[in-house]
Amino acid sequence: MFPAPKATARRSRSDSDRTDIARLRVVDADSYTDWESVYRDNVARLYRLMYARVGNRPDAEDLTSEVFRTALGPLRLASSKGEVRSYLLVTAQTVLASHWRRTLGVSVTSIDPESDLDALTESSGPEDVGDAPQRAGKILAALPERYRRILELRFLEACSIKEAAHTMAISVNNAKVLQHRALRMAAKVGLELEL
Amino acid sequence: MTARRLTAFIDALVAGRRPDPYQADPDDVEVLRAAIALRAARPGDATPDDEFVAGLYESLAEESSPSVASNVRPLRMRRTRAAIIGVAASIALVGATVGTTEALSNGATTSSAIQAPHGKILRTASFETAQGHALGQIVVYGGTPGWVFMNVDVPTAASTVKCELRMMDGSVVAAGTVDLHHGTGVLSKKIRVDTSRLQGATLYGPSGSVVASATFS
To answer: Which pLDDT tens digit goes with each residue over A33-42?
Structure first.
């Protein structure tokens, strides 16, 4: 399907150095040597990008898998790392668009191969959590206290609606209404801040 | 109807589950986008599971060439088995300690012996950093009630680390906070989850950064 790691053939020196030289390929320091290095260098960053776009682990894992399955086949290893990452991002853009079409019928989030390129570069470490906390922080900071609190409890502190209601000393029904209104306002804030 | 589906979608996001598909109203889009932005900021899930990374690697290698599959090694499979055995061997003692601790913390007026857990319902794993350094062990017992025990040795000045348990369906359950003394600490706690559905556990520092993770075998 795609260029697999090949077993190194054992040959004696008598096969002549000339043959070896003819088989050597110039490997640019800025290019990948095999699909494994493409995978290892990009899997965590690509997963993180997908996770930021779908907000849940199972979908992020499936979409990351789909990107690699789709992209590794036609991949040209002679391309530079930058070109390979751009290609992965273009594939990711298509895979994500197709995901939203399939699941909700509308595009909720997207990937822009140009503006999202930073997410796949070395400047973004594998353990880096990306800009998600900053984006969420900006939205939450613009909300009234009670709206902010219910969203913090639910989305950041993993509380159930019952636990959130208990913490805020309100009924479960009130917590549901509060969350609904808080999300509507958060959506408005996100739109205004162009997040 | 759409409002109910939207709520269900958001509830699934909050719980870390895969949301069910539905025909969304265009008015839902901004709300969904805000919910995803907030959920993506929760510490933990933004880093891929080692198991997922290794599994996809193996799967891609098999698809590329069946002959290569036998040479494929998971990216990270090191385990400090000796340490785990040590922890597991002390289970009976720990079980009694947990029983006593829980009884005291719950204000129970009677004490009862806790049955030592059997091998089949114990699950163990090592906490490892992203670089593969072992930082501790975790043992879960799938009884009624179930409980979790962990010991950690973290090279940090922080006084606590938080532990979350990851379920196979992607949801996350808070296990508790480990108080550290000179970087070391233990936690034993009763848990109300199906331990057979546990996938792993993650330790977070006070800033929310991942300190180490463990995957149950």
So the answer is: 888 899 999 9
**ipTM, 2 dp:** 0.81
Tell me the pLDDT tens digit for each residue of A87-145: 999 999 999 999 999 999 999 999 998 888 888 775 555 456 667 888 899 999 999 99
Q: Which residues of A touch B172 (CB under 8 A)?
A: 158
In a domain, A15, yes or no: no
The per-residue pLDDT for range A79-103, each reduced to its tens digit, is 888 889 999 999 999 999 999 999 9
Residue numbers in A near B203 (CB within 8 A): none
Q: Does residue A109 sit in the same domain as residue A146? A: no
pLDDT for B74-125, tens place per residue? Answer: 334 333 443 443 444 444 334 434 433 343 334 333 333 333 344 446 677 8
Counting Cα atoms < 13 Å in the Cβ hemisphere of A100 gives: 22
Interchain contact, A132 vs B23, CB within 8 Å: no
Cross-chain residue pair B21–A186, CB shorter than 8 Å: no
pLDDT band at B185 (very low <50, low <70, confident <90, very high): confident
Residue B145 in 3-state DSSP? coil
Considering only the C-alpha atoms of chain A, give the largest distance between any 2 of them, rounded to a whole number of Å.
Answer: 84
Contacts of A76 (CB under 8 A, 6+ apart): none
Q: Are residues A111 and A141 in the same domain?
A: no
Name all domains of chain B by residue range, CATH numbers in brackets: 2-39 (no CATH), 81-215 (2.60.40)
To the nearest whole Å, the CA of A104 is away from the closest chain B CA by 5
Tell whether A115 and A180 lie within a shared domain.
no
User: Scanning every residue of chain A, which has its alpha carbon at the shortest distance from the alpha carbon of B72?
Assistant: A5
Structural domain tally of chain A?
A: 2
Beta bridge partners of B101: none
B17 interaction partners in chain A (CB closer than 8 Å): 56, 58
Range of the domain at A52: 27-120
A21 lies in some domain = no
Nearest to A72 among B37, B38, B60 (CB): B60
Query: Which chain A residue is nearest to residue B61, measuring alpha carbons?
Result: A4
Q: Are residue A116 and residue A33 in the same domain, yes or no?
A: yes
Does the model's pTM come out above 0.90? no
What is the SS3 assignment for B73-113? CCCCCCCCHHHHHHHHHCHHHHHHHHHHHHHHHCCCCCCCC
**Cα dihedral A143, A149, A154, A157 in deg (nearest 10):** 120
State whether B169 and A64 contact (CB < 8 Å): no
Kindly state whether residues A110 and A174 are assigned to the same domain.
no
Q: Are residues A106 and A163 in the same domain?
A: no
A103 and B19: CB-CB below 8 Å? yes
